[in-house]
Amino acid sequence: MIPDLTSEITFRKLSIFMTFMETGNIARAAEVLNLSGVSVHRALHTLEENVRCPLFTHKGRNLIALPAAWTLLEYCQEVMQVMERGLEEARKTAGVGQGRLRVGTLYSLTLETVPQLIMGMKLRRPDLEMDLTMGSNETLLHMLDEGSLDAILISLSESEIDRNHLEVLPLFHDDIFLAAPASAQLNTEALADLRDYKNQKFVALAEGFATYAGFQEAFHIAGFEPEIVTRGE
């Protein structure tokens, strides 16, 4: 049976109520919660309205808890403890919060970047176990979206970042370089102009990998479609 609870009775209001009951004073409760006294008073007032029975009485400028408020406090404490256990068990079921972090990374980052991050994590959290999965941008984003990874290390352009869906922390910015056989005698004193290599054959990574979008954009700016002889997977 679903209890008859109004949407106005929220965990936030119950938390404010519990803090007020512990401090016995609106001003002290507001200070503990880093809220204004008006916000605390409003939360207590609307909670009382939705509980549908008197919880407080005024004595001068002070708000005094009635017996019903102390009864509600006992059940609030029990509810909060049960909810805390429920959240913990839910995280365990999802594989989160058990001292294990599931991280996805690009293959190219496993040479230097990922080992440094793992060592830094071990220094701060020696008890934390880490599962490492390697793949392309596309694969890792899909695994993060479906919940099989907790965090991923990938390459993104600003246009690819959906900050409403993902929490993004930039680690570093990288450049794309033109590589060629030594016999090509590239001019290393200036930036490469791809138009000078219009008739050359190119090797590229397949769609979904980190440099794919940058590769495509560079040739779009150069104004020609490159001849790709091999696409790496």
UniProtKB/TrEMBL annotation:
Pfam annotation, one family: LysR_substrate
Residue ranges constituting the HTH lysR-type domain according to the UniProt record: 9-66
TM ranges: none
* GO CC, any one term: protein-DNA complex
Q: What is this protein called?
A: HTH-type transcriptional regulator gltC
**InterPro entries documented for this protein:** LysR_HTH_N (IPR000847), LysR_subst-bd (IPR005119), WH-like_DNA-bd_sf (IPR036388), WH_DNA-bd_sf (IPR036390)
| The entry's keywords | DNA-binding, Transcription, Transcription regulation
Q: Molecular function (GO) terms listed?
A: DNA binding; DNA-binding transcription factor activity
Task: Specify the species.
Answer: Leclercia adecarboxylata
The family classification in the record reads: Belongs to the LysR transcriptional regulatory family.
Q: Which Gene3D superfamilies match?
A: 3.40.190.290, Winged helix-like DNA-binding domain superfamily/Winged helix DNA-binding domain (1.10.10.10)
- Specify the domain of life of the species encoding this protein: Bacteria
